[in-house]
Amino acid sequence: MPLSHSSTSDSNGDDELVETTEPASIDETEKMLSPEKLLKCGDLADVKVSCGERSWDLHKAILCSRCPFFERALVGQFQEARTSHVILRENDPDEVDGVIEYIYTGKVSNHLLKEEDTKAYVKMFELGDFFDLPGLRQQALQLLDDDFLTGLVEDVCRHREWDTPCKCRRRDVFKCHPDKLDGLRHVVDFAYGGGGVAEVQLDTYEPVRRLLRQFVARTFMQVVRLPTFWALLREVPALGADLFLSMAEGDEELGAHLLADPPYSCRSCGQCLHSFKDTHAEADNLLEPSLEQRHDQEVSDNSESSNMA
């Protein structure tokens, strides 16, 4: 802390230098007392949080002002309020460490992303729900969308898992990577109560369901043609019912994508089949003769039979 000098006069009139300590500036004080620094050093801690074999010396003011879960535990008639000690028996210590870091810094640490693929985002959402942290739930949804669903949308829209005949008469077949489909299945089970979960609170998991409906819409409804997705709909019928009800109730986003034609081009020859309807029209022309063509063929066959007779 900076030192300064001031002068005083003694009884003889001589000036005497006195060394004084200046107060820290506002910026320096904020830096010394920042939540991130307090978390690391543990200074001024007045609350202990324990999980498994780990414990953290924390600050009641920060926890209660930023996390309703800790506010309910530490302000009221609970034992934790009297002892200033919160014991978390049902959580993983690494996950609790990640939650505490998020409360203090607002950042998502690697402790919350240790699971592979979509399991990490689902677990993050569950922790956000358990500790009543809307911001953490929102970040989980954002990561799920940005890091997983957006890539899967691009895969589905770029290729398709059914025959796509074009002028080159090649069969363009899309096979989605099994890991991606397993990741999608995990999210669907979480959102709709599959995987052994008996009941799912609609209000709590509606944001995840909404994200899944948006995913289906963003594929121009093409994902429903994947056999693997059909199998998922059979296993979790609530997903199919949710999609149908959303369209029936006038969901503008789902309705717009349902009526739209996704762009598509053949991967083999590059021919642009500008829309889903164009693709099927092209397939019909190549593989199935029209009624007029069949009539002409029948006339020709009858004529040849008459000539032979």
Automatic annotation (TrEMBL):
<feature type="compositionally biased region" description="Polar residues">
    <location>
        <begin position="1"/>
        <end position="11"/>
    </location>
</feature>
<dbReference type="InterPro" id="IPR011333">
    <property type="entry name" value="SKP1/BTB/POZ_sf"/>
</dbReference>
<dbReference type="Pfam" id="PF00651">
    <property type="entry name" value="BTB"/>
</dbReference>
<feature type="region of interest" description="Disordered">
    <location>
        <begin position="1"/>
        <end position="29"/>
    </location>
</feature>
<feature type="domain" description="BTB">
    <location>
        <begin position="45"/>
        <end position="112"/>
    </location>
</feature>
<feature type="compositionally biased region" description="Polar residues">
    <location>
        <begin position="300"/>
        <end position="309"/>
    </location>
</feature>
<protein>
    <recommendedName>
        <fullName>BTB domain-containing protein</fullName>
    </recommendedName>
</protein>
<dbReference type="InterPro" id="IPR000210">
    <property type="entry name" value="BTB/POZ_dom"/>
</dbReference>
<feature type="region of interest" description="Disordered">
    <location>
        <begin position="288"/>
        <end position="309"/>
    </location>
</feature>
